[in-house]
């Protein structure tokens, strides 16, 4: 290995994770595959890169590649990587559930968001207008008739205050 290999690995790995976290899965695959070539595949770090690669394959719609890589990872030298590989393989090989269209929420396409925020603001304004209930009319406040309110001293308050003062006095005496 040359002295440039660790830096190249680090750069490719970070670029792959960065692209994955921003939804650019094809770009993430390219970077993660390059990072995988710069590290020993059976090392802990090699397993970590390959787990990210499985996620990128799955997100990009490359299900068969993800399954094949998970099968490799289920025989990895690192116990944790083997365990995660088996768990992911179990999930990827599980039958896909069917859902009715009315159970799903339609998410607008935000791919043009970098070009301008106008579509997003229109969509959010429409959504808010649909969800907002009609405004209620304010009720008239009725003035309080203080002659009907019981304002006499309550004995409980005086007992509570006396108990607090007594407890504070005892506590101050111990200090």
TrEMBL record:
<dbReference type="InterPro" id="IPR011990">
    <property type="entry name" value="TPR-like_helical_dom_sf"/>
</dbReference>
<keyword id="KW-1133">Transmembrane helix</keyword>
<keyword id="KW-0812">Transmembrane</keyword>
<protein>
    <submittedName>
        <fullName>Tetratricopeptide repeat protein</fullName>
    </submittedName>
</protein>
<feature type="region of interest" description="Disordered">
    <location>
        <begin position="119"/>
        <end position="141"/>
    </location>
</feature>
<feature type="transmembrane region" description="Helical">
    <location>
        <begin position="156"/>
        <end position="174"/>
    </location>
</feature>
<keyword id="KW-0472">Membrane</keyword>
């Amino acid at each position: 290995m040359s002295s440039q290999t660790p830096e190249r690995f680090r750069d490719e790995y970070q670029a792959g994770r960065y692209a994955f976290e921003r939804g650019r899965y094809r770009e993430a695959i390219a970077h993660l595959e390059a990072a995988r070539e710069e590290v020993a595949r059976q090392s802990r770090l090699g397993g970590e890169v390959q787990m990210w690669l499985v996620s990128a394959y799955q997100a990009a719609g490359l299900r068969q590649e993800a399954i094949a890589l998970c099968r490799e990872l289920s025989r990895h030298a690192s116990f944790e990587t083997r365990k995660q590989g088996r768990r992911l393989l179990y999930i990827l090989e599980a039958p896909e559930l069917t859902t009715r269209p009315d159970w799903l929420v339609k998410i607008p396409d935000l791919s043009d968001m970098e070009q301008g925020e106008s579509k997003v603001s229109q969509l959010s304004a429409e959504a808010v207008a649909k969800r907002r209930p009609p405004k209620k009319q304010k009720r008239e406040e009725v003035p309080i008739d203080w002659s009907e309110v019981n304002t006499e001293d309550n004995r409980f308050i005086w007992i509570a205050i006396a108990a607090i003062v007594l407890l504070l006095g005892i506590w101050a005496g111990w200090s």
